[in-house]
Design goal:
- The chain is of the alpha+beta class.
- It folds into four domains: about 150 residues, ph1033 like fold, CATH 3.10.590; about 120 residues, no CATH class; about 100 residues, CBS-domain (Roll), CATH 3.10.580; about 120 residues, no CATH class.
- The chain is built from 21 helices and 16 strands.
- A six-stranded mixed beta sheet has the order 2-5-4-3-1-6, sandwiched between helices. Strands 10-11-12-13 form a four-stranded mixed beta sheet.
- About 40% of the residues lie in helices and about 15% in strands.
């Protein structure tokens, strides 16, 4: 049994029909029946024909989602439907793919589902599972952190049991002092290892904004502690060790960091931290800024499927067809990259020699280090479609595709687009309804003369402007002023935090207040 998320439209426009009719609705306006599309290539042909103006990356992304919806989702699987109301519905798939030709466009691609529960509050779902639900894709699998078992429990009305590998001890580190005491209590042979997510939670933080990161660095420095690898690198679920980096040497004359680097530890998390400890620069424990590293992408930390030297070309081709891959890394016995086999390289090799083997079809692959700046690799990924990722031991540990970039930067751009539309709508209605002299009245006197329209106002000024009864009445909106102003202030705080930039993704829950304000503005001022 597997667990999936199938959204009901970007703004939840299909969720009422999904709940009332007991169906999953895939959308995709203008796309015909996929019942006869047996393979991924068949689906791709149909998508390309329906959307001839779309590029290959978009076509490939949509193909993957639709292939999952038509073929990979099976009766008996669980499905999660996030709702606009901040609630979550969970159901069990009961039927195969259907195409309803008589239904409205966008309501034709369906899977039957029995809804088990439709009113789960997101607050009862732990943050790691909520984050997994935050993808912008319409159809995707929840495959991490024991998701299927946890969704099963939620569907039965039970509490989210949490990830099976959850660090129960980390949950007891509720404040920095407890963390410091625990590190001091431990020996260098048994360092404190935990995820970056759990580490940040000690300070009550969910995302690595610069101000919060600086505060943690200062706390660590004051206590003589260091994290390896740095807590500013990697995803929120990457493992780090917290060490007494400033402690004096022991009887052997070595520091805790050096002892950890040379120790024979058993925990994979501590082994990773130990290796990273040996690569710290002299007198440097943390980078001065939070760079957007290759390792910040989830796919860079997820071991890709591969073939090994000595495997047959048929093995590689079988895996590529089964998984819909365009290429596969070819690794040696130690997990290091020896090249890549792709459909293009296979075609070229077979043109020269119909009996070509895997070695002949293997070509040089693009390989980035986890610590590289992601921006340096975007051009390569766009040109070749992928880049493989290696760890400190030069072993392959991930694969980034153009599709991963599309999802990642779509996730990062979406909040800015949302806030920009809110500001544009506020400017338009204020300029239309409120005279310039009253707009200038909320601006400090020394700057009032430079205000020629609402475009010259800061975002925070709208709250002051619309708090004036005369200005609020001028809008003519039949909505509650206090609730609107509260939502506006919440959006202002969200906008300010957004402008500080963080390498960590913004979840759907964090976007909801701004989305709600935008929907309200669209309702009271429906002009496009």
């Amino acid at each position: 049994m597997r667990a999936w998320v199938v959204r009901a439209g970007e703004h939840g426009e299909r969720e009422r029909a999904a709940l009332d009719e007991g169906v999953l609705l895939a959308g995709w306006l203008g796309l015909g029946d996929l019942a006869e599309a047996r393979t991924r290539d068949d689906v791709k042909v149909a998508v390309a024909a329906a959307y001839p103006d779309e590029g290959p990356y978009t076509v490939g992304n949509w193909t993957g989602q639709l292939y999952r919806f038509v073929h990979e989702i099976q009766p008996g699987d669980l499905v999660v439907l996030p709702l606009k109301s901040l609630l979550v519905a969970i159901g069990r798939v009961t039927g195969d793919y259907e195409y309803r030709s008589a239904a409205a466009d966008g309501m034709r691609h369906v899977r039957r589902v029995e809804w088990l529960v439709t009113d789960i509050d997101r607050q009862v779902i732990q943050s790691d599972l909520l984050d997994s639900m935050g993808s912008l894709l319409t159809v995707f699998e929840l495959s991490r952190f024991g998701a299927a078992e946890r969704v099963t429990a939620l569907g039965e009305g039970k509490a989210d049991p949490g990830r099976p590998d959850a660090d129960e001890f980390a949950a007891t580190l509720t404040e920095p002092t407890k963390l410091f005491e625990e590190v001091r209590r431990r020996t260098s042979d048994e360092p404190l290892a935990l995820s970056i997510r759990d580490f940040l939670a000690v300070w009550g933080i969910q995302r690595r904004y610069p101000a919060d990161t600086e505060r943690i660095k200062n706390d660590l420095e004051a206590r003589g502690l260091v994290t390896v690898p740095p807590f500013t690198e990697g995803t929120l679920d990457s493992q780090i060790a917290v060490l007494a980096g400033g402690a004096e040497p022991d009887e052997s004359g070595t520091s805790a960091v050096t002892r950890l680097s040379g120790s024979t530890v058993q925990s994979p998390a501590v082994q990773s931290a130990a290796h990273a400890a040996g690569h710290l620069a002299e007198e440097e424990t943390e980078p001065q800024t939070v760079a957007y590293r290759v390792s910040n992408l989830d796919s860079a930390n997820r071991m890709p499927e591969s073939v090994r030297i000595g495997d047959s070309l048929g093995t590689a081709m079988t895996i590529m067809v089964l998984r819909g891959y365009s290429q596969l890394p070819v690794l040696d016995a130690d997990g290091r990259l020896r090249g890549v086999v792709s459909w293009e390289s296979i075609g070229r090799a077979r043109m020269a020699d119909p009996g070509a083997d895997l070695q002949t079809a293997t070509v040089r692959g693009q390989e980035a280090d986890r610590s590289d700046d992601l921006l340096d690799w975007i051009g390569t990924i766009q040109q070749s479609g992928y880049v493989l990722v290696r760890d400190h031991d030069h072993k392959v540990c991930g694969l980034i595709t153009a599709s991963d970039l599309t999802v990642q930067f779509g996730t990062r751009v979406r909040p800015f687009v949302l806030v920009e539309e809110i500001e544009q709508r506020l400017r338009r209605v204020v300029d239309r309804c409120i005279p310039l002299d009253r707009i200038r009245a909320v601006v400090p006197r020394g700057r009032a003369s430079r205000v020629n329209s609402a475009a010259n106002l800061t975002f925070g000024a709208y709250g002051h402007l619309l708090r004036v009864p005369e200005n609020w009445a001028a809008l003519g909106w039949a909505i509650d002023q206090q609730h609107f102003l509260a939502a506006l202030e919440e959006c202002r705080n969200f906008r300010n935090s957004l402008m500080h930039f963080s390498p960590d993704p913004i979840t759907d829950d964090q976007l909801l207040p701004a989305q709600g304000l935008l929907e309200l503005l669209r309702s009271v001022d429906p002009q496009i």
